[in-house]
Specification:
PilX_N_dom, transmembrane helix, alpha+beta, five-stranded mixed β-sheet, 31% helix, transmembrane, PilX/PilW_C
Length: 179
């Protein structure tokens, strides 16, 4: 009588378990690498969003300071110094705004830097104020005993930077001042 083993001999196995294990390991590796790249991308996006948010807040601080300057009794001459410009320096120009702002000219004296220091920025915020035009006040009654009331309009442009100079935000607003 001959006894046969219920188990197969070593010669009969083809290594299918090894191949399945290797394929499974390869799939897990690909999934792991993809999730690491996704996490890295999300970190970069969060950092860039924070950087732009800091730049936006710095530009808003520049706008606030420029509007505080305009709320003073005397602003100063709009001759291109200290960030004060005329919107259209040509008095014969009948347009209300120039096609190219004159402060973008390389010969201009530049922007005015914010007086308060802001932390965690590459450069301090800067602003310019452009005198646009004067308009006779609305809903005013003209009286011969007093001067005609006018309102002056100014365009305030501020730029702020984040932790790097690559993240720059430029904001612009119009300010009305009763004379």
């Amino acid at each position: 009588m001959s006894y046969r083993s219920a188990y197969r001999s070593q010669k009969g196995q083809g290594g299918a378990v090894l191949i399945v294990a290797l394929v499974f390991t390869l799939i897990l590796t690909v999934i792991s690498v993809a999730s690491m790249q996704s996490a890295t991308l999300q970190e970069r996006m969060a950092g860039n969003t924070k950087d732009v948010n800091v730049a936006f807040q710095a530009a808003e601080a520049g706008l606030r300071e420029a509007e505080a300057v305009l709320s003073q009794v005397s602003v100063g001459p709009f001759n291109g110094s200290k960030g004060l410009y005329l919107s259209c320096p040509d008095p014969d120009d009948d347009r209300k705004a120039c096609s190219k702002p004159n402060w973008t000219d390389k010969a201009s004296k530049g922007w005015f830097v914010l007086t308060d220091n802001i932390d965690h920025v590459a450069r301090q915020p800067e602003y310019i104020i452009e005198e646009m035009t004067k308009v006779v006040g609305a809903n005013e009654v003209l009286d011969s005993d007093r001067a005609i009331p006018t309102d002056s309009f100014y365009r305030v442009t501020a730029r702020g930077y984040g932790a790097s100079e690559r993240s720059m935000v430029v904001l612009s607003t119009t300010y009305r001042r009763a004379d």
